[in-house]
What does this fold into?
Amino acid sequence: MKKRYFPKIRNDECKGCERCVIACPKGVLALGKALNVMGLPHVFVADEAACTGCSLCFYTCPEPGAISIIEEKEED
Amino acid sequence: MLCGNEALVYGALLAGCDAYFGYPITPAGEIIECAAKKFPELGRVFIQAESEIGSINMVMGAAAAGQRAMTASSGLGISLMQEAVSYLAGMEIPCVIADITRSGPGIGNISVEQSDYFQIVKGGGHGGYRCPVFAPASAQEMCDMAFRAFDTAEKYRTPVYILTDGMIGQMMESVILPEPLEKSAPAPYSLTPGNARTNHFTSIYLEAEELEKKNEALLAKYREMEANDQDAELWKTDDAEIVLVAYGIMSRLAKNAVNELRERGIKAGLVRPKLLFPFPKDALNALVDRAKKFICVELSGGQMIEDVKLAIECRRPVELIHRVGGKLISVEELVAGVKALA
Amino acid sequence: MKTFRIIKDRPAGFFAEFEKRPAPLRHNMHYCPGCGHGVLHKIVAEALTDFDIKDRTTFISPVGCAVFGYYYMDCFGISTPHGRAPAVATGLSRAHRDSVVISYQGDGDLAAIGFNEFIHTVNRGENLCYIFVNNAIYGMTGGQMAPTTLVGQKTSTTPHGRCASEDGIPFRVAEIVASQPNPVYVERVALSTPKEIMKARAAIRKAIKNTMERKGLSFVEVLSPCPVGLKKDAAGISKFIDEEMTKIFPLGKLKDVAAERVPVEHPVPVYDREKVRAALFPQENGAEETESSGKKLREDVYNESEIFEKERRIKVAGAGGQGVLSLAYIIAHMARLRNFNVTYLPTYGPEMRGGTADCSVVASRREIASPIVDSNANMLIVLNQPSLDKYLPQLKPTGVIVYDSSSVTLPEIGENQVAYGVPAAQLAVGLGSTRYGNSLILGALAKMMEELFLTPKDTKDFSDVVEAALRECFADKPKIIAPNLEAFRLGKENAFRAETIKTPK
It folds into this structure.
């Protein structure tokens, strides 16, 4: 059984504060140039494969649902 | 026999008051002392707060949680509470506050004055709110009105005042106690475990339209009080040509004065408002046809007199007999004053 | 086969939609980008569901940026006046045993305008979870100085930087709380790095747990980022917290005695009607009604003497400490025991605490209007000379004086006025205590009434009612009842009608 993790960003809930970008030890997240519904730049998943599911980005993010963490299991 | 201040506590407890929060002040001291004894005896909450600001905000918390909560103080302490009273009115949290007045402004003295009328009856804190104001004139009424005040508070979801003076607070009389009320379920809007957890209290409305709607609803409530809750004692007014208007201790002296005036052939009578808001406009208006003159008897520079003038729309002369600074108007002075004006 | 599971998502302690927040944004919060409030709200919201306490928690929204906390938290909410959250929290916490109250305040709210309410709530050790958000600035009002602003820090009200000698120094709240005996748990945490954020999460969850277990007051001070208010980016604000704030506000646990504390318990309120009656209604005491009661007074006691037909106005006066008020109180009780309406109005306040004391007692078969005896007194009972001199002009031309002849010299009185004296203070000393003076005066009162006003039937009753009133008034000091009854008897025996100089009117 293989497990991997990745974050999911709800673009319209992100205010682009970049705290998650700094929090992530693996450099998974980065701030993009596109603007969301609030007219703010938002974070995107730049290196999905590096995610370990540690969830530090989730707890650092001040928004309720801008980031969620997904676990993917692959049965052999 | 109970003094007025004690009778207030008895009335509140018999009405099922769950919590008393207060800070000592003369001439309301017997209230907190009696509450300190009687509330814990019945397992009810009693806290001597760090200030009147603390007291009224504790009342806010307990009342928001669905409890019958009260506090009491005198002038200065009531001034400190005004911010919270405005919040309570805005958040529509029912509770009871007693003001046993002393003389002001500032620290003044502890003797009797009725100069808190504007503060209590017209609002007191910021924003446009009104509170029902009971005006007891005996120990019995201190008990009865405290007993009634919680129902009024809950009916209209509002803070309710009991406004009287140190004389009524200190005076002892026999009191017939009402039967204790059964404990009723906390209001469905309260923050009581088991109620819908969407319940919340706030007085912040950022959108002008929303606040207008909210404030119009409050105003409608105040009009409803004015329509339904006016209450006054009419004493020898049937044939009265001179109508005295007085509340609290001055209403007691005014009755003696009315008797003496009648002995001297002056047809005097007394209207004693039992509630100062809503003001007993209807009762006063009903007397306009026969009355030649209305005379307000107040221990203030003339505060209630404005409401009397408004009530009868100045269709008759309205005069003032007053003293300030802590002196009563004696019956003799009152009789002489009325004769001079009649 | 692949399966997906969401392991972290919007906590269910938040409302699914923020319907109370004005449209159109109903999924995110009103806070500025990077604000620590959001992080804290998320930690609290997560705990609300993890601990299954949504239905019994009240989250207090203070004045400050968190004023809209109730938009978000799926639990009870209340927006309190500025600084008053601790008092409101106290009322809420005492109201329901099982409620979990989370008081949440910023540095201006808690440490400036509301510190008095706060520190006394700490002192009482109310069962509360306290979250103190210290971001060294006033956020909502636009970046003014907070009590926790660092020395040298520029704000809109410290444009040249906070000056220690003019503006004070950063106020350290956690240390003050920890120095008090009552709080059970005090920790300072920071929302800077992920590591510190996870420590903050643990601290807040522990504080909420303590509250659920009724351990008392748990306090978590949170050094919180306000990047917009402090004009810093994400990295800059973390650095500010870690490198500057923590120098003044060191992180760590300052106190934890939760394990050794027993749960806070308050009395259970009693509403049972019989028990309430027992606590508030007077106890039946043999033949006599003792106090105010829900029942009508006995109808078989009705004194026939003519004197009782009219309202009787009595002034009792003397020096403070002579027992004036208790004497008046006994007389008021006598009247009440015989179905009179009665008012008893003492002087109060500083006058009572020194110098003179006086009391008005009015008894009547009808409604009593004025309770104040300031003229037309029917009777003057005076225990010292100044009181007699002061109040004699208020006595009616047909009035009666009862006085303590040990110290009072009777002046000229009206033609139709009468005076009865008894050397009360002297005789009382003979009985062992000046406190028996009152009963001696009552003896003189009884003698006067018997000689001047009472029918034979009422004569016997008057002594009975004095005795009954004395028994009632001294019910909590039964040992002094007998000596007082003896003093009454002695007073009656020694009382005399004074030979006085009359002024013809």
Chain A has one domain: 2-74. Residues 2-74 of chain A form a domain with the Alpha-Beta Plaits fold (CATH 3.30.70.20). Residues 9 and 42 of chain A are 9 Å apart (CA to CA).
